[in-house]
Specification:
- This protein is an alpha+beta fold.
- It has nine helices and nine strands.
- It has helices at 12-38, 133-140, 148-177, 181-196, 206-212, 230-240, 248-264, 272-292, 303-306; strands at 46-50, 55-56, 59-63, 65-73, 79-85, 88-96, 101-108, 111-115, 125-130.
- The strands form two sheets. A five-stranded mixed β-sheet has the order 3-9-8-5-6, with no helix packed on it. A four-stranded mixed β-sheet has the order 2-1-4-7, with no helix packed on it.
- The chain starts with 11 loop residues before the first helix and ends in a 53-residue tail after the last helix.
Length: 359
């Protein structure tokens, strides 16, 4: 007998048998894992049993919102279980085989619904969905179609604000062309205020924003950089250098950019989500710029840009230091009316002054 025809040795046979056994066990384990993954998630599900004649239970109560039902078929034929709102099917599970179960997940609104129980001739059960604070808030929220009017009005307001900025930029260009420093400073203040009123939507035209109001800190050569243009460059010339020299071409370019910005406003994102995102982004940038002192680094008057963001309800009424005011009665500790008691005398606030701009 040749060596190739010899039977496996006594040492090799147990090894082969052990390897085969491990492979069989591995296959069984993989099959069990796959079966377990395919099983419906029944944790927290409400059990419902469909018999040959009815449902058990016939009446259910659940809170509004996500709900999960575990439907078990205890009859002798395949069944379906449905949630009905009148004649409309809200949710259903079909072809549940006898002895098997199925999970139905659905987000339900408050109300009273019918539930089917197997055969069409079987009586229907009742599903009562109770209102919650979350469902009440969703009901109170207006549908998007009701926001068409306010969103259109906001679009018109933005277009008017863009028109005011364009006219202010043109007035600034004329004042600089006339060589009138005082008039140019006044015109710059008005143009900057109108630009600030467009702060929430300005990032939607980032190319124009970078030309209209670039910060020197963004540029390699700071104030000497060719990209230092627009309102920022004019502010630097008028307030830091007290001169209108070389500002005429900058003002002319600003007028063109303002006109281009006005033409783009109508196409800006005006959805509620976009408005919220713009407002959040602008609030962050405004806070960062205020903390860094970069709102008006040369004019040194942040109220020029912050003022347009105040509403009439929050802005204080102008009043000189000599104007008369009625006395304010402050409440005593424990009182339920009036203003809160004054702050302790040891609390002091220190006014922070901004260093003069670097020339």
């Amino acid at each position: 007998m040749t060596p190739s025809a010899q039977a496996p040795s006594g040492r090799l046979l147990p090894l082969l048998l052990g390897t085969g056994g491990l492979l069989v066990l591995g296959g069984v384990a993989l099959f069990w894992l796959a079966s377990a993954r395919n099983q419906p998630q029944t944790e927290g599900a409400i059990p419902v049993t469909v018999t040959a004649t009815a449902c058990e239970p016939m009446a259910l109560e659940v809170p509004a919102g996500p709900a999960r039902f575990l439907i078990r078929n205890a009859s002798d034929r395949p069944v379906e279980w449905e949630i009905l709102n009148g004649v409309m099917v809200v949710a259903e599970r079909e072809n549940i085989a006898p002895g098997f179960s199925s999970v139905l997940s659905e987000r339900l609104k408050p109300g009273v619904y019918d539930i089917t129980c197997g055969l069409l001739s079987n009586p229907r059960g009742k599903l009562t969905v109770l209102a919650t604070a979350e469902s009440a808030a969703e009901t109170a929220a207006p549908p998007l179609r009701e926001l068409i009017g306010p969103l259109s009005e906001r679009k018109v307001q933005l277009m008017k604000a863009a028109g005011k900025f364009t006219r202010a930029a043109q007035a600034l260009e004329q004042a600089i062309a006339a060589g009138d420093l005082a008039a140019a400073k006044t015109a710059w203040t008005q143009a900057a205020a109108h630009w600030a009123s467009l702060g929430t939507v300005a990032p939607q035209a980032a190319d124009l924003q970078n030309r209209i109001a670039p910060q020197a800190a963004w540029l390699a050569a700071r104030e000497e950089d060719p990209a230092f243009t627009g309102l920022s460059r004019i502010e630097y010339g008028l307030f830091a250098r007290s001169s209108v020299a070389d500002l005429a071409p900058v003002a002319a370019a600003l007028s063109r950019d303002a006109t281009e910005f006005q033409s783009r406003v109508k196409a800006f994102d005006g959805t509620p989500a976009g408005i919220a995102a713009d407002a959040a982004r602008y609030a962050r940038s405004l806070a960062d710029a205020t903390a860094a002192g970069t709102l008006t680094p040369y004019a040194a008057d942040d109220t020029v840009l912050l003022g347009p963001r105040w509403t009439r309800s929050t802005a204080p009424a102008p009043c000189s230091t000599r104007c008369s005011r009625p006395p304010i009665r402050r409440n005593r500790p424990g009182s339920r009316t009036g203003l809160p008691p004054p702050m302790p005398r040891q609390v002091r606030f220190r006014r922070i002054t901004r260093p003069p701009p670097r020339r």
